[in-house]
Structure formats: structure tokens, C-alpha cells
């Protein structure tokens, strides 16, 4: 008898959960990204106790078809990727089909969803990976998913959670950035009954920026734009007078995905060069569009790290676009450009 066996589905999900569901903000990220992928115009997020007792995300997107509802909680079940080729031109935020089964393995999940405007849909309850309820339900078009008692069956993970304040800080940071990435979607974020963010979804990025950072910061932003055969760039950067003590005020969005990129941060800093005081950083929200084949998002389970295939060109493009805007500011004193 050999010693190797294939892990059963539930155990495999729990192990995957170790990677995908690090803390409450990872759950928020996965659920909100699903809501964005579903293409709705509003996303309402309700959090209790830093996400440890409740994370609920309600969208008015495409909803989940009856037959797909149970499937969605299976490992590697996704509607976003069909063939190997798709992996090299990913347009959606999700694609691994790991989030829902991983979350359901370490929490109590209730999902209501309907693809119809008639209000006919399904309700599914799954706890610790086991489906306990699956029934017809009256629910508006879209998806309403609630995750309760996160890590209730993985006490070791629960023990490592930081304070409620720290966890909601991570959650708010993520939602703020995703809202900046999607100014056309109206977001709300509530924690223990208090409203932390409301964006209008008007499509005006500066309006979303003002909702996140305040109106006076929004007034100190300069529009930046650029075109290149491989990339385009739109967004805002702060006048050199408006700085912060860290890089957290920089939000980079590539094809609708909020990412972290050392390369891009470096190019931004290079463009400001000596305009910034030492150890001070600008505020920026930069959205890049590029052909999906020019970036690899399949680097890390969080999909937050990406690789670019034409790095030096991208770096130069950024330095030029931002440098132009800042250069104009420096050499032609006068009223700030229209906002
Ligand atoms: P992925 O996003 O990588 O496809 P998930 O486990 O996050 O994997 O979700 C599995 C599937 O469930 C998705 O591919 C999608 O078809 C469906 N789904 C999940 N959330 C939603 C939602 N809010 N609206 C519509 N469909 C959803
Ligand atoms: Mg997903």
C-alpha cells in the first residue's frame, strides 16, 4: 500500500483558506471583487466587530443562476475562466474559483442571490464547508452574501487576529481603494452601525477621491493623463505641497484591479524627484489601461502583486506623464488647472 492519498474536498478547502483568507479584510476583498465582477452599480458592505462576527456584501449585479449556486462553493469552480488561454488575458478581478469554498470552510455563510428582476432566487447556507440549507427565496436581483463567525472552527487563526480597530482599518483601506478604482460604482461601508464611506458612483474619480480623503485634499490634486501604444493612464496626483509620511496615499489601478507595485511607486517618486521633501510621499490615484496580455496577475493568491512584461517602457511612460504635469506646475505659475 502506498502512502499517498488525495485530500478530501473539505480538507483541501481548509488548507486553501489558509492562503486566501488570512484575515477579515481578505474576505471583504474576495466578496467585494465578486460584486464588482458581477457588474452592478451599487455595493453595500456591512461589518460588525472588525469583520469577525459579520461581513455582509450586497450587490445589484448579475446574480447567480439557480444551477450555479451550489457550484459556486466548489473548489476551482468559476464562471470567469474557461480555457488555459484565458489565463493570459484575464479581465475579471477573480478567476481562481477558490474564494467562496475557502471562506465557507472557515465561517458560516448565507448567500441569497437572484439573476432575475422578478425577485425569484435561491438561499443557501453553508457552515464549515457543509451545505445545510438550499431553498427558494424572494430576493432582489443581485447577490447578498453574509459571512458570520469567521474562523469559528480554526481557533489558531482566530488567536492571531489583531484588535477590531486594526482589522477594520485594513478593511476600510481596501474598500477605499476599490472605490477609487471604480468611481462608477456607488459604495457604502458601515462598521458597527457607523458609516465609514459613501461614494456616489457618478463616475467622477475626483468626487470619489473627495469621499475618501476629504474635499480639501481633492482640491490639491492635479489631473494626469497619457497615451502610449501599449498603455494609457488617467488619474490624479497631488501638488508637491500636499504630502504624507508614507506611501499609503498612492493607489494604483491596472485594468480595474487595485494592485501594489514597487516599480510604479518608484516611477512616481522619480517623477517628483526633488519636488518632495525628504521622506514625504504624494497622494495619487492612477489608473492604467493595458492589454491583459501585458501583465500577469497570477503571481500570488491575493492577486495584488502583478508582473508587467514591458517594465522599463512602463516606468518611462509614468515618469513622463507625471513629470509633464509637475513641470508645468513649476515653470508656469498661475491658477491651478481646472479640477
Ligand atoms: P472566482 O471569483 O475566482 O470565479 P469565487 O469563489 O470568488 O471564484 O466565486 C465563484 C463563482 O461564483 C464566480 O465565478 C461567480 O460565477 C459566482 N459569484 C460569486 N459571487 C458573485 C456575485 N456577487 N454575483 C454574481 N456571481 C457571483
Ligand atoms: Mg472571486
TrEMBL record:
Coiled-coil intervals, chain numbering: none
Q: Where would I find the DNA mismatch repair protein S5 domain in this sequence? A: 209-327
Q: What family name appears in the similarity comment?
A: Belongs to the DNA mismatch repair MutL/HexB family.
Function noted in UniProt: This protein is involved in the repair of mismatches in DNA. It is required for dam-dependent methyl-directed DNA mismatch repair. May act as a 'molecular matchmaker', a protein that promotes the formation of a stable complex between two or more DNA-binding proteins in an ATP-dependent manner without itself being part of a final effector complex.
The protein's name in its UniProt record: DNA mismatch repair protein MutL
In which organism is this protein found? Answer: Paenibacillus mendelii
Which section of the whole protein is represented?
1 to 339 of 696
